[in-house]
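Two proteins were folded this term; both appear here.
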Amino acid sequence: MNSSRCSRRPYRALGWLLAAGWALSFPLVSELPPHRLWGWCAGTGYLAAAGATLLRRPRAAVGLALTGAVAVPLLYLVLSGQGQSEVAVIERSGRLMLESGSPYVDRPERVADYNPYLPGMALLGLPRAVLGTDGWVPRLLGDARIWCAAALFGGMWGGRRLLGGREAGLPGSGPLGSGLRGSGPPGSGLRAAAPVLVASPVVALPLAVSGVDLPLAGLCCLALAAAAAGRPVLAGAVLAGVCGLKWTAWPAVPVAVALLSAVHGRRAALRCAVPAVAGTAVLVLPAVLQQPRELVRQVFAFPTGRADVPTPASSPLPGRLIAELVPHGWWLTVGLLALGGTVVALSLLLRPPRTVVAAADRLAAGLTVAFLLAPAGRFGYLVLPVLLVLWGRWSCGAGGAGGADGAGGAVGAPGARVSRVVARGAVRGTAGQAGRKAVARTVVPQSAKLPPSSGAIWSRPPATPTTIEGAANGSAPEAQYPSASPRTGVKETVVAAVPPTGS
């Protein structure tokens, strides 16, 4: 163990050095003062983190990176009133929402006058409109970045809590899959990676200077977790909230609905879709009725490069290059976007996601295609799919094995240790209650310590067990079925509780 940590130490230090080099490039190439300030602060923090890593202080390294890349620049920029223009746009929209009921400026003339967000984003600007800027406490609590960060971390943490040790997407697997990990506490490695992700430039930069896309990531994670946990109404309500922020979050609705339909049935999918659509309409419809032209011009035309004022989202992504360099390129990018959306929609119909990891990956893939092919965009938009992919795996570290489509959950008691789930299974029906029939297949290496049953039973055992052992606390005994993994060829044991007599 110590030798493996020593062997990884140079690579971790190299990672911090690469982050430092990337951050220190901002003072040289960026024209935005908040970006240059963040570059100096983050670069210093990353260099200190690299040094602490080489000195065998990994926790101190993460703390130094968080201090330099997040805490210092965020607090300074918030208290001094600096930030990207998006912060001022959100806070102005909150003030306009209170004054006129609509977050949009009539007949905008400058880039700063445009509000490319749906009316729900104005809710994050309401604290500034209410608290004002007199004193450091109102400046801190009223800043939109603080509430964007709260939506990100609250959504990711809440989604992980909703999964609650289950291999998400498998009904009833929560009480069956808790605590099944390798050596060490459940999900400890992924929990340790969470602060590293926050300290990385992927999250730290937008968190400090703008934060506008972070609420989308947090709420999408929460919606997918609610869908995987079999909470369709909650998933629909969260989807309504995120879809009222930016229309780029709308693809989350079909992904969550497909996950619910595949795992919990069409009725659950409908119970999610209805509040999602209705809630989004409630948030958006007042602005549509009050300022329909401004909503179309500022929310749809401006971000796609079709307004009178050019959009500042001008990163050299494929869609923008096609739109500018190819004849009729704008329409070509629209056609490519429609083609990409059709492919993703067909994948949801033909092979719907069955786990939260698969759903997060599918949504991230669709958003990546959209951001790359859009006629206007920024590299920063890609933080949303990156966070979705990483969160899906982090959330399944709470328990269950997490995995690709159809991956099965594990049967076990909290705190039990199993080295690795190496094959796939399926859970159908209702599990988790003693005496209830269900199919709950767990495949573990034969060398692993087999956990006691939690009450799930096989309705149809696959074969005659070679051994039957009594379980602890008077629960049903376990039947062990020898098999071999079709993927790895590793000898395994399928563990299931033996049905009680008369079941």
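Next, the second protein.
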Amino acid sequence: MSRPARDRTLSRADALAMWFFIIVGVVLVGWTVYGSVARVVDAVNGRFEIPGEFSGTIGQAPIGPGGDMREVELQTALLLPDTLSLAGMGALVIEQVLAVATIATVVGCLIAVTVSVLRGRVFSRRNTALIATAGVAWLVGIAGVPFFGNMVANDAFRSISDGTFDNVLMSVDVSSLFLAAFVAAMATTVFTVGARLQRETELLV
């Protein structure tokens, strides 16, 4: 009598490792939701800490002898504006919602694939669709979250400087975007081919 597929393909250590990553994924989603909600609540209550990027901006810091001020070139800083415009608040909310949606979608799809593997099914059309969905969500998050983050930062600059400081920067990392697209396409291709080969093997059996 042959053993079930799960017994043939997964050891106890394999199953424990997968359950561990499932738990880590759930914790990651929960932490992301908590952080995003906390940031939106702080913004609604007028407490802003906005990450901002600078280009060629000179500032001063007490790093000289005896705490003397010396010039430094700013690259990143936390901006503390008193308020944001309606558009800035909207961009902040969209940024946080998109971040949560991206993490939840990617983790949810990968957990669904992991559960399928635990049940003895690695390659299937469903798993291929889940991997493709995770890849698309990842790409949208990599491009969308920084885009709306830039909008929030630019609105914070406007609020602090009363519109006199122009520091419009796009912080989307194009190389990371291309790398994510390559990884997503490769993973989808692997699962597509794997599902086809498995179907052909099952037909032969």
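Confidence is low (pLDDT under 50) at residues 1-8. The first strand starts at residue 50 and ends at 61. These notes refer to the second protein only.
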